[in-house]
């Protein structure tokens, strides 16, 4: 079991030199990669599980030299151990990606080099297709009347919820990006600057409906603040908790008979899918979403292709033969 070191996980079975290298890696992730504290902690947990497994597998505390001499069979034993404990393939793939990242860090910083890890394949994952809402379902979600019927909240809270949902769908933001906005970020024109993953900034267009919805919410909000105050506030005046947004979507799913896939993130998927269906350029959509890789955005072409295939099968006179 890993023990915390300044809030971060360090394996119990790490020798002093490995422990020091892990702490250097944590600092590198935080300071140079600018990863969030949650990401650093999650990476630390995944690496700790790997190190402690290897200590049990090889019979002793692990040093940098031990990591350098690991064979492909050792890495496969770790993967097989996770499979035997019924970890999801996606979880194992993520965890092994963290291990690879740590070994790359060690190599780039001249600590050790292990070629065996590069010969080990991670579990194959099913090709996930984003689950977008239909345009009609998205329209119902951004309708303030439906929100009021589902939640029976105070008028300013209803306005806040409507503004947030309209923003997520209208601009394709991640929920974390939306909740990180301050009042100084509230759009006053046709463009808005957003800070995404890795503190990368992008500029997104703002529809009049989004701008008007946010302005209407701010006019009703009873809590005072300045440009640094979070844009979306909870009932007590603090930053809005993302769990409350998840709860709101759960209520709306029940009230509007929407599928379980209707989550805050589904609004981002819907934004991209509907733009693509309307003739949007894939590169432009990549920029709007803040995707580092075009391959991530290309998943939405599968959604559109699936829709076209369904229409074709339903309409073509020979489709049923």
Describe what this molecule looks like in 3D.
- InterPro entries: CB, DNA_brk_join_enz, Integrase-like_cat_sf, Integrase_catalytic, Integrase_recombinase_N, Integrase_SAM-like_N, Tyrosine_recombinase_XerC/XerD, Tyrosine_recombinase_XerCD.
- The protein has 321 residues and is mostly helical.
- The protein has helices at residues 16-31, 37-58, 64-68, 72-84, 89-108, 135-141, 144-151, 155-171, 175-179, 208-220, 242-256, 264-277, 282-289, 294-297, 299-315, and strands at 3-5, 8-10, 191-195, 201-205.
- It folds into two domains: 3-119, no CATH class; 135-314, Intergrase catalytic core (hpI Integrase, Chain A).
- The chain has a two-stranded antiparallel sheet. The chain has a two-stranded antiparallel sheet with strand order 3-4.
- Helix 8 (155-171) runs antiparallel to helix 10 (208-220).
- The longest helix has 22 residues, at 37-58.
Topology:
Blueprint (H helix, E strand, L loop, with lengths): L2 E3 L2 E3 L5 H16 L5 H22 L5 H5 L3 H13 L4 H20 L26 H7 L2 H8 L3 H17 L3 H5 L11 E5 L5 E5 L2 H13 L21 H15 L7 H14 L4 H8 L4 H4 L1 H17 L6
Antiparallel strand pairs: 1-2, 3-4
Helix pairs in contact: 2-5, 7-8, 7-11, 8-10, 8-12, 12-15
Based on secondary structure, the structural category is: mainly alpha
Sheet having the most strands: 2 strands, antiparallel
Strand order of the largest sheet: 1-2
Stretches with pLDDT under 50, minimum 5 residues: 1-7
Number of domains: 2
* The level-1 CATH class of the largest domain: Mainly Alpha
Estimate the strand proportion.
under 5%
Subcellular location: Cytoplasm
Protein name: Tyrosine recombinase XerC
Subunit structure: Forms a cyclic heterotetrameric complex composed of two molecules of XerC and two molecules of XerD.
GO molecular function: DNA binding; tyrosine-based site-specific recombinase activity
């Amino acid at each position: 079991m890993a023990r915390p070191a300044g809030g971060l996980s360090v394996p119990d079975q790490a020798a002093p030199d490995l422990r020091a290298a892990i702490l250097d890696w944590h600092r590198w992730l935080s300071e140079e990669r600018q990863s969030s504290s949650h990401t650093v902690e999650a990476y630390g947990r995944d690496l700790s599980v790997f190190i402690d497994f290897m200590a049990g597998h090889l019979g002793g505390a692990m040093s940098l030299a031990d990591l350098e001499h690991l064979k492909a069979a050792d890495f496969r034993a770790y993967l097989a151990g996770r499979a035997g404990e019924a970890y999801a393939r996606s979880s194992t793939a993520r965890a092994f990606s963290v291990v690879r990242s740590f070994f790359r860090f060690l190599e780039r910083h001249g600590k050790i080099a292990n070629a065996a890890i590069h010969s080990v394949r991670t579990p194959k994952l099913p090709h996930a297709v984003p689950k977008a809402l239909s345009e009609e379902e998205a329209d119902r979600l951004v309708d303030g009347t439906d929100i009021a019927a589902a939640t029976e909240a105070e008028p300013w809270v209803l306005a806040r919820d409507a503004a947030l949902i309209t923003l997520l769908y209208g601009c394709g933001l991640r929920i974390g990006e939306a909740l990180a906005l301050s009042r100084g970020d509230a759009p006053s024109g046709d463009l808005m600057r957003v800070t995404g993953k890795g503190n990368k900034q992008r500029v997104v267009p703002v529809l009049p409906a989004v701008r008007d919805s946010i302005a209407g919410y701010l006019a009703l909000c009873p809590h005072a603040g300045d440009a640094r105050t979070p844009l979306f506030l909870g009932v007590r005046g603090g930053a809005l908790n993302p769990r409350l947004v998840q709860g709101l979507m759960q209520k709306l799913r029940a009230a509007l008979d929407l599928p379980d896939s209707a989550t805050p993130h589904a609004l981002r998927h819907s934004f991209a899918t509907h733009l693509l269906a309307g003739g949007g350029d894939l590169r432009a959509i990549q920029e709007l979403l803040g995707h580092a890789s075009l391959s991530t955005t290309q998943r939405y072409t599968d959604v559109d292709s699936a829709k076209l295939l369904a229409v074709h099968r339903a309409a073509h006179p020979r489709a049923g033969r």
